[in-house]
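Minutes, project check-in
Item: structure for the 300-residue chain
Input as provided by the requester:
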Amino acid sequence: MKQALRKDLEPVGASFTVKELVEPHFDPNWHFHPHYQLFLVEEGTGTRFIGDSIKPFGPGDLVFLGPNLPHLWRSDQAYFDKRTDRATALVARGIVVYFSEDFLGREFFTKQEMASLRQLLDHARRGLEWNSTTRNQTEASLRNLTTQPAGFGRVLRLLTLLDDLSHATDYRFLTSPGYTNTVKPAETDGAAYRRMQQVHDYVLEHFPDDLSLDTVADLAGMTPPAFCRYFKARANKTFSEFVSEVRIGHACKLLMGGKLNITQISLESGFRTLSNFNRQFKDITGQTPSSYVKTYRQLY
């Protein structure tokens, strides 16, 4: 699994790239690249990791990321099940747009008329998401963009889309105010990267179980104290906080599904007591599980 954390996109002659993704699952590797990325999930569920943010995703999930912001849309485990019959296999679909900071020239976004777009690009460095109103409008615009032939008209459509997003007020930042990408160039292809990728994969596979710090540290080839320091320096949070957020992210997804009660969801998400689940859920989301469900139903 020796894959670089820094992801270089294929060179193209156009000023920006727009793709329709149809895959068994989204890219399972934690990575970053020097481009802005606007991504809409059309089909598929899982957990998205953006900087120090961990949240569930599903159809309609719309995110805008600035350059070099680490990210991962990790599809649910069912999407990796090779035993599934081809006719019933799950599919992940999405629309993604990539563009560089100077895709229209180095001075374009410094002009007075570009003030709102410049602010949008600045905000994207922390990652942005929008609620259903803006999301529905952007979904239609992105679909139109995929059918537009390369040329001036397509550039104009992208600028119009970005301008609409720059005036939308229903956005939320994804990463914490102090988050920065701490990955060093020397770590983007080698043991250090593989170490963090192994930890991510292990936690995502085993979070419903009792996770042993000793086991995870051994997986990373480190002592528990050294691993804790290493992980916090790179993830901007402690390992236990990371595990809690993965579990709560899974719980949010189950709550949105509406098929299980809160006690069942607590156990399915790896919590042994309901009181601990409720406490950590409120610490991470700012809401109780029941109020989270009410908010979700109002928005969606």
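Outcome recorded: The first strand starts at residue 17 and ends at 23.
No further action items on this chain.
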